[in-house]
């Protein structure tokens, strides 16, 4: 790379040294020297989580534990803030110059904690590296519409698209789009246990499977500046350990892994605050269009007409989740309660009429697949409650088939069930990511649903750059799915955390994609 690009070396070293000293804490002046007033104590927050962290490298595995740390260590070109559901500038200001040309202008003076300048060359390196690595379980597939990234100058990165893609600004807010230092990261392999990003925090210590220590990065210049001086993140085994940590004061914040019983105890006590936000996690039952029974529209629509979501979430989850009436949950652009509009309230007479008009007389037999562990302890109760509701109508006979995850995936692919339990948490904060897995041929849920109308609407919403027009297309697509019922949405999850009574801004730290930004927290 161009050595001229980088640097007034003396200034860099001084800046880097200052960062290191800041991360080590403030020192009181010795008696008789300087001010007699002690320096304020650093505000270090302690966090406990039951997450598994497999990689600190944003080009690596993409599970929620890794994303939580990455979101706090790295900067992206754009970001999502609690007060605004659409992307705002973080490292750059971006705009479409043409339907297939997206230009990002970097802020001047951006640096990494090691003092290296952050330029457009780092942006290009980060994206090229991610695509080149194609890590299994990683994020490379998200950027399939990007043909190349070019760098006309040190402060300009241009995304050249294969075809128009309105989702790109949202994709650029994800940890998949994190900017890494090209002089620090190897181009052809992951760096799982170290990090050099330009986010609100820098990594000062990491023990895989045990602890990550983050110090405020004073050189961060973006929308998510830290209000605390650092965070110590401890990885604990289970809900009991989370509960103990936050109730004994060993943790200021506990997240990811609470069981419903422990949460109820925390809510009923007075030791901590329990804060909730709607999360992006959803559950639904997918119909298999390879099945002669489930392929019939009358069967799918009759099931949709009978399901009682409030009763289901109460029975299976004790109201710890929220009834969901669309494949796209509230909080995402273009959401509409399409199933509520299509089917109103559960109604046996209406379901009977649907079946009869579809040429079906007598009881319809369905095989319902579910898996015991992958979707949590409520999965069995959810399947049982759906069975109960359908059979109570006298219109259906439901045979349950519970299978562990590896075999379950194979049976779903083979079309062994008429309908089956499934879940989804999107990879990027846009409604489109709930629709692709259901609508597109060969998509995640492999239910063999085919609809020219749905595909046409999806092509249009991806290419539409007017946000209001795009939301209308998304709403129309949700209505098509409510009418066709390839999938029956049941509930939206909640991201729930427990914190000490003195911790402020907890709600502002919760991201809809289920990870937590530490920067708003203070005490």
TrEMBL record:
Q: Where in the cell is it found?
A: Cell envelope
Annotated Solute-binding protein family domain ranges read: 97-441
Which terms in the GO cellular component ontology are assigned? ATP-binding cassette (ABC) transporter complex; cell envelope; periplasmic space
| Record has Isomerase as a keyword | no
Q: Name one Pfam family in it.
A: SBP_bac_5
* Protein name, entry field: Peptide/nickel transport system substrate-binding protein
Q: From which organism does this entry originate?
A: Kribbella voronezhensis
Q: Which family does it belong to?
A: Belongs to the bacterial solute-binding protein 5 family.
Q: Which UniProt keywords apply?
A: Signal, Transport
Instruction: Name the lineage.
Output: Bacteria, Bacillati, Actinomycetota, Actinomycetes, Propionibacteriales
Listed GO molecular functions? peptide transmembrane transporter activity
Query: One of this protein's GO BP terms?
Result: peptide transport
Q: Which InterPro entries match?
A: Peptide/Ni-bd (IPR030678), SBP_5 (IPR039424), SBP_5_dom (IPR000914)
Keyword Signal (UniProt): yes
């Amino acid at each position: 790379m161009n050595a001229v690009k980088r640097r007034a070396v003396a200034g860099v070293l001084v800046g880097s040294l200052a960062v290191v000293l800041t991360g080590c804490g403030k020192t009181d002046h010795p008696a008789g020297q300087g001010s007699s007033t002690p320096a304020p104590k650093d505000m270090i927050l302690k966090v406990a989580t039951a997450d598994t962290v497999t990689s600190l490298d944003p080009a690596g595995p993409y599970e929620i534990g890794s994303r939580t740390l990455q979101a706090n260590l790295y900067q992206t070109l754009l970001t999502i803030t609690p007060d605004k559901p659409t992307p705002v500038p973080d490292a750059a200001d971006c705009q479409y110059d043409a339907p297939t040309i997206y230009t990002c202008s970097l802020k001047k003076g951006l640096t990494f904690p090691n003092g290296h300048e952050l330029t457009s060359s780092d942006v290009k390196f980060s994206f090229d590296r991610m695509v080149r690595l194609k890590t299994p379980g990683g994020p490379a597939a998200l950027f399939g519409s990007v043909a190349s990234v070019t760098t006309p100058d040190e402060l300009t990165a241009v995304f050249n698209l294969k075809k128009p893609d309105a989702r790109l600004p949202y994709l650029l807010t994800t940890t998949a789009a994190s900017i890494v230092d090209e002089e620090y990261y190897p181009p052809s392999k992951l760096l799982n246990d170290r990090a050099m990003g330009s986010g609100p925090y820098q990594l000062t210590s990491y023990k895989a499977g045990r602890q990550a220590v983050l110090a405020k990065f004073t050189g961060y210049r973006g929308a998510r500046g830290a209000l605390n001086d650092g965070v110590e993140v401890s990885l604990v085994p289970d809900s009991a350990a989370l509960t103990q940590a936050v109730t004994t004061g060993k943790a200021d914040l506990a997240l990811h892994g609470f069981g419903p019983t422990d949460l109820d105890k925390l809510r009923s006590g007075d030791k901590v605050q329990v804060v909730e936000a709607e999360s992006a996690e959803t559950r639904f039952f997918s119909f298999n269009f390879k099945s002669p029974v489930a392929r019939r529209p009358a069967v799918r629509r009759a099931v949709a007409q009978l399901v009682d979501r409030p009763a289901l979430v109460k029975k299976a989850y004790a109201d710890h989740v929220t009834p969901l009436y669309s494949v796209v949950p509230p909080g995402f652009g273009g959401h509409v309660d399409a199933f509520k509009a299509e089917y109103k309230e559960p109604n046996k007479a209406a379901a009977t009429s649907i079946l009869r008009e579809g040429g079906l007389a007598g009881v319809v037999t369905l095989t319902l697949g579910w898996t015991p562990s992958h979707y949590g302890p409520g999965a069995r109760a959810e399947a049982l409650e759906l069975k109960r509701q359908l059979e109570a109508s006298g219109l259906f006979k439901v045979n349950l088939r519970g299978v562990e995850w590896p075999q379950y995936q194979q049976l779903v692919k083979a079309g062994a069930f008429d309908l089956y339990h499934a879940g989804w948490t999107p990879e990027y904060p846009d409604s489109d990511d709930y629709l692709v897995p259901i609508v597109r041929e060969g998509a995640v849920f492999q239910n063999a649903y085919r609809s020219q109308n749905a595909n046409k609407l999806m092509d249009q919403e991806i290419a539409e750059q007017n946000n209001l027009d795009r939301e209308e297309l998304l709403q129309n697509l949700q209505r098509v799915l409510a009418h066709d019922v390839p999938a029956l949405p049941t509930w939206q999850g909640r991201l729930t955390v427990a914190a000490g009574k003195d911790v402020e801004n907890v709600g502002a730290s919760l991201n809809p994609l289920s990870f937590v930004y530490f920067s708003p927290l203070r005490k």
